[in-house]
């Protein structure tokens, strides 16, 4: 995920920032976030991403199914259902995140100067598609991207809900009385869980999407990439770069959940 994950979980801040810069209808950041959430819904914070819309869709479907149970009708989701809702959201998002990240990685890893392979994103898309077709070229690494997104966002939403519910039960308070600091803390920890649960998939995805083309291709498939990484680098090879990733994940994930949770409370 790398920069894509940061863009996704940091998107609410960017939306609020732009609104504050371009209009005078809000008194501040919290007021802006609250009004956007109340008037436009949670997906307004993620106009460049479909996964939050997909998550809420899956959650509503599970809730409706639970209510129709003849033995124990309830709108509450099990933790397994929260995970599956997040996984569904990740899979839906992978259709977009896969090729976007592939192009970004190609541009970031290409030689500089006269040896540059691509003049820009559109040129990169055109050449990748022309080289090996859209599915095998532009969508290279899509299988492992799907696995990563499903696991990452399944764990992300599950971890946050579990921590929030555990806090409410432990302190015998309604969920909306949990302090903003604790909400942010649980959101940050959920971001850590996201990466710890999915990072090896991300490493393999990056290796495949920065691999050579044609005769220079090193990895023939996701399984081949896993095998060669393990043989050449051992288990440590799947965790390179995890430190900076975890440092970045905490604040952006904490802020995302804090903004969304506070906005939901303001609507009540």
UniProtKB/TrEMBL annotation:
Keywords: Membrane, Mitochondrion, Mitochondrion inner membrane, Repeat, Transmembrane, Transmembrane helix, Transport. Solcar repeats lie at residues 1-73, 77-166, 178-266. One of its GO terms (cellular component) is mitochondrial inner membrane. InterPro entries: MCP, MCP_dom_sf, MCP_transmembrane, Mitochondrial_Carrier. Its main location: mitochondrion. PROSITE patterns: SOLCAR. Coiled coil: none annotated. This is Mitochondrial carrier protein. Belongs to the mitochondrial carrier (TC 2.A.29) family. One of its GO terms (molecular function) is L-ornithine transmembrane transporter activity. It is found in: Mitochondrion inner membrane.
